[in-house]
Amino acid sequence: MDAVLKPFDKASNTSEKRALSDHVRAAPKPVEQRPSRAEAEAAVRVLIAYAGDDPAREGLLDTPKRVVGAYEEVFGGYRESPAELLERTFGEIGSYDDVVLVKDITFNSHCEHHMMPFKGVAHIAYSPIDRVVGLSKLARLVDVYAHRLQTQEHLTSQVATAIDEILAPRGVAVMLHAEHMCMSVRGVTKPGASTVTTHFTGIFRDRSEEQSRFFSMVRGG
C-alpha cells in the first residue's frame, strides 16, 4: 500500500501533547521599523569606507546592492517556520520501527559573534513512532536554522528540538561538524580546525547503546 500523506495537526500537538518552542512554532518576528533596502545599502557603504576603501570607485559602486541581495539569501531562515516545514508527514509506515538516519547534510551559516561564515555537515537520526517526514525536509530544516545568525551549539539544539517536538519520535540524535572562519582566518588563525557538537533526546539520550549505534552509522559501520 502506498504511504498516505497526513498533514500534521498543530492544534492537536500543542493541546494534547506539548507546546512548541517559540523558535519551532513560527518564523522570528522582524525587528520593529526594519531598515529599508536603501538604508541597508548605505550601511554597507559606511563599512567599505571604514575598511579603508572608496565606496564611490568603479569596482565598488554596485557592491552595496550585491551585499544586501546576498544577505536576503543567506539569512532567509528568518522568514521560514520549522513547524510549517515539517507539518506534512507520511502517516503509514507499516511495521517500520527502526532508526532513520540522514547524514552528510552540508550547510553554511554565519557566526553571531563576528558575522563570519562557518560551514560543515550535519547528521540527523530519529526513531519514528507513528509518522515519518520526507527526507529532504530534514536537510531543509538544517538550512532554515543555519540561514540565521548562529552559534554551532544553538544550531544543533534547535534542529534536534524541532524534530523532537513536531514529530514526537522515540528519540532524536543530531551531530554537526563545522569549520569556523572566525577561527581559521582571524584571531588564532587555525585553518582546518573543526568543531563537533551533538544533541540527543529520548532513546539516544537515555541509552548508551543507541548513542553508540548512531556514531557507528554516521561512520558508515
Main features:
221 residues, alpha+beta, GTP Cyclohydrolase I, Chain A, domain 1, GTP Cyclohydrolase I, domain 2, 2 domains, five-stranded mixed beta sheet, three-stranded antiparallel beta sheet, elongated, disordered N terminus
Summarize the SSE layout with pairings.
Blueprint (H helix, E strand, L loop, with lengths): L4 E3 L2 H8 L4 H4 L11 H15 L11 H12 L7 H4 L2 E3 L9 E12 L5 E10 L5 E2 L1 H12 L2 E2 L1 H16 L3 E10 H4 L10 E8 H4 L1 H12 L2
Parallel strand pairs: 3-6
Antiparallel strand pairs: 1-2, 2-5, 3-4, 4-7, 7-8
Helix pairs in contact: 3-4, 6-7
Overall description:
The protein has 221 residues and is α+β, with helices and mostly antiparallel strands. The chain has two domains: 21-74, GTP cyclohydrolase I, N-terminal domain (GTP Cyclohydrolase I, Chain A, domain 1); 91-219, GTP cyclohydrolase I, C-terminal domain/NADPH-dependent 7-cyano-7-deazaguanine reductase, N-terminal domain (GTP Cyclohydrolase I, domain 2, 2-Layer Sandwich). Helix content is 41%, strand content 23%. The protein is built from ten helices and eight strands. The chain has helices at 10-17, 22-25, 37-51, 63-74, 82-85, 135-146, 152-167, 181-184, 203-206, 208-219; strands at 5-7, 88-90, 100-111, 117-126, 132-133, 149-150, 171-180, 195-202. Helix 6 (135-146) packs across helix 7. The longest helix has 16 residues, at 152-167. The protein is elongated, with a radius of gyration of 20 Å. The chain starts with a strand and ends with a helix.
Total number of distinct structural domains: 2
Extended strand count: 8
- Say what oligomer this is: single chain
Spell the H/E element sequence. Answer: EHHHHHEEEEHEHEHEHH
What is the topology, as strand order, of the major beta sheet? 6-3-4-7-8
Shape: elongated
CATH homologous superfamily (4th level) name of the largest domain: GTP cyclohydrolase I, C-terminal domain/NADPH-dependent 7-cyano-7-deazaguanine reductase, N-terminal domain
Overall pLDDT score: 91
Q: Helicity level, as a percent range?
A: 40-55%
State the low-pLDDT regions, or none.
Answer: 1-6, 10-16
Distance between the termini: 31 Å
And the CATH topology of the largest domain?
A: GTP Cyclohydrolase I, domain 2
How would a textbook summarize the main sheet? 5 strands, mixed
CATH class assignment of the largest domain: Alpha Beta
Structural class, please? alpha+beta
- What count of helical segments does DSSP give? 10
Radius of gyration: 20 Å
The amount of beta strand, in percent, is: 15-25%
Under the CATH scheme, the architecture of the largest domain is 2-Layer Sandwich
